[in-house]
Structure prediction request, 261 residues.
Amino acid sequence: MSRLAGLFFSLVILCGSIYTPAQAEDKTLVVFAAASMKNALDDIDAAFTAKTGVKVSASYAASSTLAKQIEQGAPADIFVSADTDWMDYAVGKKNINEATRVNLLGNSIVLIAPKDSKIDNVAIGPGFDLAKLAGDGKIATGDVKAVPVGKYAKAALEKLGAWQAAEPKFAMAESVRAALTLVARGEAVLGIVYSTDAKVEPGVMIVGTFPADSHPPIIYPVAATATAKPEANDYMSFLRSPAAKTVLEKYGFVYLIKPTS
Prediction:
């Protein structure tokens, strides 16, 4: 037995050092981000890992869902919301390191239809009759009571005088990507999503764009959580970099801050 032990420790010396659980732990940041961020943020996370060696585990859902999960103790390091309301909610619950908060991105909302739809070039303005345009079909967007894209959509339709007639035709989805899928599959004849979502889904086409002044400004704030790992500071810095700006603009987001080197 002593001879086997001696062989083991000789092997350890040759290999370097004894394995410990602490050494086995990978540095991983957990990012909770609005569903509309998926494609762009996947690219950014890969670039961040390549640069720093820090892995990123991203969870995408409606901002409302993510804010509630963080409130309930989900171990997130970064929160990216698709509106300021849900970031404000998380700040109010003391779940966010407010000093790290920055309004990073802007976006727009568009009217979409399945790619083979006969609906095309819709002029969206006062008097816009969305209910008539949808006919007997459904209109998909996020839940107007909680999901940011749905809240923006309802605000726009109310201002344009189209909400009351169109409301019964709405299919409320759990996130903007879920609404996008309903239209791509032809389960809804129209949908209201972010322009960035429409651009990454080949199964839909943009048939109209909502005027920017028809709804509150679409702003994506980002911040580290109150329990974030130290590496979260590096991630926040990377989001401010020219490399991140290039990726985000490629996907159609409006970059709201001046990048830092």
Notes: The CA atoms of residues 132 and 166 lie 8 Å apart. The chain has a mean pLDDT of 92. The first helix runs from residue 2 to 15.
